[in-house]
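#structure-requests
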Amino acid sequence: MLGHYLPARKPKVIAINKERVTYWISKGALPSDSVAALLKKEGMENMDRYLEPRNKKRGKKGEEKAAAPAAPSPKKPAAATAAISPAEKPA
């Protein structure tokens, strides 16, 4: 157990065992973006490399890739579907 975070309490409670976190990161563990943000807030160094850029801009609805209009589906002629010979009718 490396620590705990209780965001529902007033004030929020954050308790981290920094020595164990440093140990596991040295062994190859990768903190998630959220955990890295909490660790950075608590004063741990070098957490910037685990943070994803938070300034990603979303495109507006109208600016999304313009989808090609769907090609109309081929329709069967009405005469071909209406005229079924007696041999083709199920018994």
